[in-house]
Amino acid sequence: MLVLFETPAGFALFKVLNEGKLDKVEDLWKEFTTSDRARKVVELKAFNKFENTSDALSAATLIIDSKPTKGLRKFLQKHCDGETLAIADSKLGNAIKEKLKIDCVHNSAVMELMTGLRNQLSELISGLGTQDLGPMSLGLSHSLSRYKLKFSPEKVDTMIIQAIGLLDDLDKELNTYAMRVREWYGWHFPELTKIVTDNIQYAKVVKLMGNRTHAVNLDFSEILTDDEVEAQLKEAAVISMGTEVNDLDLSNIRELCDQVLALSEYRAQLYDYLKSRMNTIAPNLTSLVGELVGARLISHGGSLVNLAKQPGSTIQILGAEKALFRALKTKHATPKYGLIYHASLIGQASKHKGKISRSLASKAALAIRYDALGDGEDNSLGLESRLKLETRLRVLEGKELGRSVGSTKGKPKIEVYEKDRKNGVGLITPAKTYNPSADLVLAQSTEETPKKLDVASKKRKHDDAETAPSTEPAGEAIQEDGGQEGRKKKKKKSKDVEESPTVDAKSDKKKKKKSKETEEPGVATAEGEKKKKESEAQDEVVAMETESGKKDKRKKKKQADGCAVPQRRREAKPSHFA
């Protein structure tokens, strides 16, 4: 049996002298306590040395991935004819067995044997001292660590995270410096702040002009594209109300302008670098949401792989955690978007920002997973998803009927609803016309109104008959001043009688008008008959009310007269007997 052992200097092949000792795994470590006892168990058969550090690094990376190198395959083919090979990695043993047809063994005894070889390695391999083995292993470990950091998918996006953080810091510093320039130079030329609104153009104008008295003789066409703005600047410089400054102040202001311009140039350079890195690492995410929004999502998630583990709902509100927890605590509506709000697709939506942000977050989750874990490096998935989202946005904003998402190619198929129309010009069903027979229902309902009025009049007569006997005993309890009350009631009754003819006259006028309307030709329709019947019923009600009122007044008169006569007789009796 042969044993393959990997060292920082190369591959070593040991031959097992006594295979019977491998059966006692628990006592195998005792055989490697000293170098003399170790030489009785194994001996060095062959050694394949690495030529340089890069060769050692490539071999180590392949061994970690359980893949034999080309030099290792040649080395084993040369020294392992018909032998069984003991190996520490089972996956590497399977690969050697498939490619080289060499039987490989991996068990607990082999692992214990590997531990013993590692303890006595410098004694078993001649020419490989401990002082040489330490620096070799340290250098190989450093090279391997740099290689893994360089090509690890979790660490490649570190540059993006740092670049977007620096870009945000530059924006803050640039705004601070630009406002300081405006405030500082505004004491000398305050009108320039309203004339030149752009911060970079303002810094360039200040650097070129210096003192405002020089503005008349200078040409600002390279800085200011509009001739009217340049004319306003020169006019304002002549009549400016600013204070005078000396040359030392102007030199310091110009140095600050140089800082602003240098920061703006570096920011543009950094943005180009970030754009190229995003198109390389996350092309599909970049095509969906843009470079800045995609970089901020990666920075907020920690890495591209961590972001790929998040669902679409988390990506939608990423960056709005405070608002989310505040809404959950106060039981209000949760936020609909976070960092993704600054994407161009959501900016195009005016009414349906919530729906578009939800759709965009789901598509972005797929794009991130494809960028982080997929093998392709193109942005076809992101472009196709963007076309679908733009189509959905047009459908939502245009309020068009049909399919909201559209077909797989991103083109919606909107079907117009024309149920009653044929393939040609005509209609399947004729247009609906007015049906006059439906008015008979209204005529039947009007015939029932006189019956109701008769019932109401009978009830009123019955109530008057019940109230009449109840008033008779009340007349007997009237005292001496009842005569005066009776006189007042007579006056009121006379007024009511005078008003009743006016009511009758009004009702007669209405009847005359209605008779005139009936005499006119072409008016006899169903609606006209209905109105006539209703007006006649109202007139009958008015006439019945007036008649009942007259009867009530007459009864009250009789009662008043009947109550007044006995009083007079009672007053006359004492005078007669006197």
Automatic annotation (TrEMBL):
InterPro entries: Nop56/Nop58, NOP58/56_N, Nop_C, Nop_dom, Nop_dom_sf, NOSIC. The keyword Metal-binding does not apply. GO terms for molecular function: snoRNA binding. Belongs to the NOP5/NOP56 family. It is found in: Nucleus, Nucleolus. Residues 281-398 form the Nop domain. Residues 442-578 are annotated as: Disordered. This is Nucleolar protein 58. GO terms for biological process: ribosome biogenesis. It comes from Triticum aestivum (Wheat). Keywords: Nucleus, Ribonucleoprotein, Ribosome biogenesis.
